[in-house]
Amino acid sequence: MSSPTRLAVIGLGRMGAFHARHVQELARERGDCELVAIADCNAETRSRVLEDLQAGQDGSIRTFAAAGEVAAAGVADAAIIASGTDSHDTDARALIEAGMRVLLEKPLTHSLKSGRELVDYLEADARRRRAVMLAFMRRFDAAWQFVKESIDAGRIGRPFKMVTVLEDNVPPPAGYDSPGIFVDMGVHLADEAMWLLEARPCALSGFGSRVYAHSVSNINEDYDDAFLQLWFDGDRVAQLAVSRNHIAGYRNEVWVYGDGGMVHGGAFSKDQTRVVVEAISPTGLIERKVFAQRDYGPDVPFFIGRFGLAYKREVDYFVERVRTGEWFSVDHRNGLNAMEVVVAGTGALASGEDVVAVEYGS
Description:
By secondary structure, this protein is an alpha/beta fold. The protein is built from eleven helices and 15 strands. The longest helix is centred in the last third of the chain and has 23 residues, at 302-324. The two termini are 34 Å apart.
């Protein structure tokens, strides 16, 4: 592909607007891509975001009300979908039918049934099978990639336990209708566990509570704190903790324990611009690295300060794979597996059963 890759962004909420800005930055840095279109069902949002984005580039940006309009206009080669979860399925299909490849924000779709139907649709055709990249940005975070590298290099021996924690300091925006705390937040951790341990869990158990965030927000959600334990073959476990109640600030941490040591990434700090990863053996420090993050300033969503660079690297990777035609390393199957885990986890919390098997569609 010699001419610049033309990119559209579908959905202009918190994530969509940042994806569009990152496309503009990559267009200046790479010189082989450009933002050509944005779409959102809200006319006021389209107008406001267009004004901001158009000031950042010379080429004109076209606006549309829906993904189907972008597809019909034939103005883009690829798209980033950051629309509401209940629109993921129809938006993806419209763009893919038009021959486009898409970077699809998590979760895959709004339900396990629709997720499995979308995967069946994609798997039924060789071109469609290569069309979707799932936006699990943790896989593109430099600090978390070093955690993965430490495991793969054998620095901590055979891994047998993983602990990962994601805690928001504020509830979602007013009126947010959550599909459940595991589906909304825990899907990142489920994918992270499967990525780091390179396996799918066979069973899980968990519990949840409502202790604070639900009382200060009108969000419709099942729990504001929840925990899952995942069992993998080979005597391995992963523990996933999600919360809306970390009042002091946004928190992300991961620990992976092996028979030769432990690797730990992150630690709560109000300073999001430094993330520390340490690999430690019984005899002392193996390796320690500090990963500088970009300072996006105070007027951004709290998670952008920690993962903004990961989101940009994710889009950069997407553009590169679109241009070369190569497979995506994280795709619809990873998205479905993560959904299958968190939906099983939600069911475990609702049923109160001690252990629930995870059922995979394929």
